[in-house]
Design brief:
By secondary structure, the chain is an alpha+beta fold. It is 40% helix and 16% strand. It contains seven helices and four strands; from the N terminus they run αααααβααβββ. α6 runs antiparallel to α7.
């Protein structure tokens, strides 16, 4: 038995109030009642679970989680970028990225821009799907209906169609050719990236 995310969610988390979590932790019968409500199964797999939500699952299921082996993607960025990079990235990795970036910018006209019109946004999302082709097994964005869904959300969420817009699509070009597309939702001072293709 597996949790259902339809292949579009990064993390699985139970929607529980703090009071419910406390009740589950205080009374093992609450976890037993949850498990008894599930269909029959030999193995119940919930993945991936963000570290911050592991305690909720432990309270609900009465078992400790097994680490997945990689970290969360959430990053707090603070200006200036060079200071942030020095404080947060491995020194050799940061140095290598800096060298490659300088070399790339010497060899090509590299541009990063937030897209602001519907046609360019639609094309970028479809290009994102092309950039990801063959990279991830069962990648849903490779299905026309899924790619079109995200293209529609990206276009409808542009700033100007709503007071502030609710979606952002960013494009990296090298000598005018699209080499990277990032799509996500800004909210409460954070950018939640949903799709990335490079």
């Amino acid at each position: 038995l597996e949790s259902t995310d339809f292949g579009v969610s990064d993390y699985a988390a139970p929607v529980l109030s703090d009071a419910c979590v406390s009740a589950c932790q205080a009374d093992a019968s609450a976890a037993a009642a949850f498990l008894s409500a599930l269909p029959g199964h030999d193995v119940f797999r919930v993945r991936p679970v963000r570290q911050g939500d592991a305690g909720r699952w432990t309270a609900l299921l009465g078992v400790e989680p097994k680490p997945l082996g990689f970290g969360a993607h959430a990053v707090d960025l603070t200006p200036p970028f060079e200071d942030w990079r020095a404080a947060n990235l491995d020194r050799s990795f940061a140095s290598q990225a800096r060298r490659k970036g300088r070399r790339w910018r010497r060899q090509a006209d590299v541009r990063l821009q937030q897209l602001a019109d519907r046609a360019a946004t639609h094309a970028a999302i479809l290009q994102l799907a092309t950039l990801r082709a063959g990279r991830f097994e069962g990648d849903p964005i490779q299905e026309d209906a899924v790619a079109q869904f995200y293209a529609n959300v990206a276009m409808d969420g542009l700033a100007g169609t709503d007071e502030d817009g609710f979606a952002e699509t960013w494009e990296v070009t090298s000598d005018g050719q699209t080499v990277g597309v990032l799509f996500g939702l800004p909210h409460a001072g954070r950018f939640h990236y949903l799709l990335l293709g490079v």
